[in-house]
Amino acid sequence: MSVHRSRALRCAFLFVGLSSVACSASERGKNTSGLQGGSSGGPDTLATVQLASRPAPDSSVPPASTPAATPAAAPVTATNRTVAGIDVNKEFPVVRALYVNRFAAQSSKRMKQLIQVADETEINALVIDMKDEFGLNYAPSNPQFAKNAGTSGTVKGLPALLDTLRAHHILPIARMVVFKDSVTARVHPEWTIRKQDNSVWRDKKSLAWVNPYHHELWDYNIGVAEELMKMGFGEIQFDYIRFPEPYPSLPTQVFPDNKGVAKPDVLAAFLKDATARITRLGGRTTADIFGLVTTVGGPLEVGQWWEKISPNVDVVLPMVYPSHYPRGDLGLAVPNAEPYKVLKISLSKARERDAKLGITKPEHVRPWLQAFTLGKPAYGPAELEAEKKGTYDAGYDGWVLWNPGSKYEPFLPALERTLVSRKK
User: Fold this and answer.
1) Cα distance between residue 407 and residue 398, in whole Å
2) Distance of CA 221 to CAs 181, 239, 276, 285, 311, Å?
């Protein structure tokens, strides 16, 4: 390890147990169901240039451990934390990311390891659970938000962690589960999907879901997103932008206040509202959807429909995991054994549908790639390389790796050392 990198990593790891971190400029180195989730970049100039894996951060941007207007003695918390935004289109026109679950994000040891992976490979972003099925993963400043926090702990020293990621030119992306929210459902039963007898509807795991038609719920989720943006995230990724499956074995779902609005339309309306508010803060809005949405011509039963979602977000992230396609789908006998073809076919269709909508942004689609094994064959570096090539050959440069345990070591041989455009 070079002296330069060693000092950079020491600086990065200072966030552990601290409320803030500041590094001198010289020290800055450069499941089975698939339902759990898993850009509108700048000019398309990447086809002929190699991007530095870790360009030096803008020296005019302070580490932001203490806002200028805050007295020096005041601790930095979510309450008083507001930092300069990240120009995502300029700094991160292409995103290649790793998913970081709630518990990995709470582990200083694991975060050190993931930061090092990003420092040494093409990875330039981390998708971090900030609101999932267990509640919030940070300490909110809004006392109303705090009621929905849950009991699964939070990331300690989040402001310092965000500063560290910024110093390493790693884009922090906040993943937010929206409508599968059992914590908020317990706190606000009046916000839930109901049964015909007006009692709370529950899924096969006896979990309550919140009602996508309820606008106070919209304000809560978008408010959390705005707070995270002000803390230093550059992108908000909404997951579970959908309704629960209407299994015949379960009671009929009733949606109070739906006013006759179709499922795809209310999802589109939420995303349109969220995107407008996040854009005002300089952020990018993205949405996770099922991989099948790229190839199914109309809406899925859960309300996801390409033509409704795609125009209302900056980036669409289809979960095109080969293991989740049934045998024979996409014209493939065993899709899980054809990772290149699954990615190439599904993303080419997404590109075609975007073109018909007049959407030509170079990185408007960013797929979730399978970095786990489900069935045969076992997935490793070769399969990941095939998924990446399918993405590039469909005309996109960005992607995100999904591993539910955030364990990527078996796949590291498939990662390049620097971020280079590979798309066709």
Assistant:
1) 20
2) 11, 11, 14, 13, 20
Please report where in the chains the tokens 């009671």 appear, as a residue.
Answer: 251
pLDDT tens string 362-417: 999 999 999 999 999 999 999 999 999 999 999 999 999 999 999 999 999 999 99
Binned at pLDDT 50, 70 and 90, residue 242 comes out as very high
Q: What is the CA 42 to chain-centroid distance, rounded?
A: 19
Q: Is 319 helix (H, G, I), strand (E, B) or coil?
A: strand
Q: What per-residue confidence (pLDDT) applies to 85?
A: 85
> Contact, 368 vs 318, CB < 8 A?
yes
Q: Say how far apart CA 323 and CA 32 lie, in whole Å.
A: 10
pTM: 0.83
pLDDT higher than 70, residue 322: yes
Determine contact, residues 177/132, Cβ cutoff 8 Å.
yes
On whether the CB atoms of residues 358 and 89 are closer than 8 A, the answer is: no
What's the CA gap between 403 and 265, in Å, rounded? 31
Q: What is the pLDDT of residue 28?
A: 23
The neighbouring-strand residues paired with 131 are 136, 176
**Eight-state DSSP code of residue 21:** -
- The packing angle between helices 158-167 and 215-231, to 10°, is 60
Neighbours of 133 (CB within 10 A): 17
Query: How far is 269 from 266, CA to CA, in rounded Å?
Result: 5
Q: What is the pLDDT of residue 377?
A: 97
Is residue 81 very low, low, confident or very high in pLDDT (cuts 50, 70, 90)? low
- Please check whether residue 416 is in contact with residue 118, taking contact to mean a CB–CB distance below 8 angstroms: no
Please give the structure tokens belonging to residue 409: 């070591």
254's tokens: 């009733």
Strands 135-136, 125-132: pairing kind: antiparallel
State which amino acid sits at residue 386: A
- Residue pair 338/331 in contact (Cβ under 8 Å)? The answer is no
- H or E element, residue 135: strand 135-136
pLDDT digits (tens, 9 = 90+) for 119-142: 999 999 999 999 998 899 999 999
216 contact partners, CB below 8 Å, separation of at least 6: 188, 191
> Which positions ≥6 away from 386 have C-beta within 8 Å?
339, 340, 343
CATH superfamily of the domain spanning 3-414: Glycosidases (3.20.20.80)
What is the length of the chain? Answer: 424
